[in-house]
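Colleagues,

For the teaching module next term, I've prepared a clean inverse folding example: a structure given as tokens, and then the sequence designed for it. I'd like students to try predicting residues themselves before seeing the answer, so please don't circulate the second half yet.
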């Protein structure tokens, strides 16, 4: 039986795929599928990646070339060696708000810190950690400054500063009320080797702490407030007293080698952990008051300076042991 001849109107069979074309089409389809997700889902994916990996997504395809720049809530962290241009470039391209900015400021990059703060204030940064590095060229008692833009970061919930000098707040602008009130969203404040060398600094720090109703974690280590001369505190009678009021505080670290005027005021009913070294007023009523106010914590670490060997003697206690 004769086989029917194919109709002349039948379409010719498709040509075989060119090598590599199938994989390229598959990659494009996969990329398109990912980019077809809702923007908030893509933002959530990017915010879970380290900054280096986020920036590398620009190499995935043309559609990803600038996608990371519109992702809000990025965690910007720099560790190791980097250039000021890299940091400035990333900040300039990040969308607001910036979830966190964490950086170790090496001595040669100190002049750029003020610019970074201005950019972060505009991008409504929520968590800020500036750790300045020391240098052999530093004069004794002279710390690098952070710049007044720190006061414009109004949405901070977490602030950590190390080895720096905080300047006086800028004067209020017409129609903006009175003095700088603080950071009302703060839940964590950590100041380590920080100077506030101006009149009224203690009152300012008191307002910042009291003005954050949800503050849960407070660390004050070698914080000096008030006018300084020659790197040393002025005479005792010029000390400006200020107090710590934080009813929702869960953790308190208070270390001071010189009396900066700070005291704990009132009970801290939610305090669980306290790390105290206040030998600058050892043997005074203020010392007893501080010890009493933190004595009901679950974990208490108390340290005093061994004045003969210039070391620290630590005592660890459990709740209600004092």
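(Answer key — instructors only)
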């Amino acid at each position: 039986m004769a086989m029917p001849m194919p109709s002349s109107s039948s379409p010719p069979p498709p040509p075989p795929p060119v090598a590599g074309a199938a994989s390229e089409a598959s990659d494009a389809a996969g990329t398109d599928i990912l980019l077809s997700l809702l923007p908030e889902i893509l933002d959530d994916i990017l915010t879970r990646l380290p900054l280096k990996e986020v920036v590398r997504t620009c190499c995935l395809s043309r559609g990803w070339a600038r996608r990371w720049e519109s992702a809000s809530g990025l965690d910007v962290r720099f560790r190791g060696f980097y250039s000021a241009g890299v940091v400035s470039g990333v900040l300039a391209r990040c969308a607001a708000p910036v979830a966190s900015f964490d950086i170790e400021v090496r001595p040669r990059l100190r002049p750029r810190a003020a610019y970074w703060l201005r950019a972060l204030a505009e991008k409504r940064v929520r968590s800020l950690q500036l750790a300045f590095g020391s240098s052999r060229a530093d004069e004794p008692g002279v710390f690098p400054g952070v710049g007044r833009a720190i006061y414009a970061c109004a949405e901070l919930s977490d602030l950590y500063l190390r080895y720096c000098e905080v300047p006086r707040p800028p004067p209020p602008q017409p129609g903006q009320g009175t003095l700088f009130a603080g950071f009302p969203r703060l839940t964590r404040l950590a100041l380590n080797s920080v100077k506030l060398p101006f009149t009224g600094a203690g009152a300012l720090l008191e307002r910042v702490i009291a003005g954050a109703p949800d503050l849960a974690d407070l660390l004050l280590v070698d914080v000096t407030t008030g006018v300084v001369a020659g790197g040393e505190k002025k005479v005792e009678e010029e000390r400006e007293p200020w107090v710590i009021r934080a009813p929702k505080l869960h953790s308190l670290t208070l270390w001071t080698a010189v009396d900066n005027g700070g005291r704990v005021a009132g009970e801290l009913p939610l305090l669980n952990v306290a790390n105290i070294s206040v030998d600058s007023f050892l043997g005074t009523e203020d010392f007893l008051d501080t010890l009493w106010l933190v004595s009901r914590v679950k974990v208490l670490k108390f340290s005093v300076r061994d004045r003969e060997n210039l070391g620290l003697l630590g005592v660890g206690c459990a709740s209600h042991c004092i």
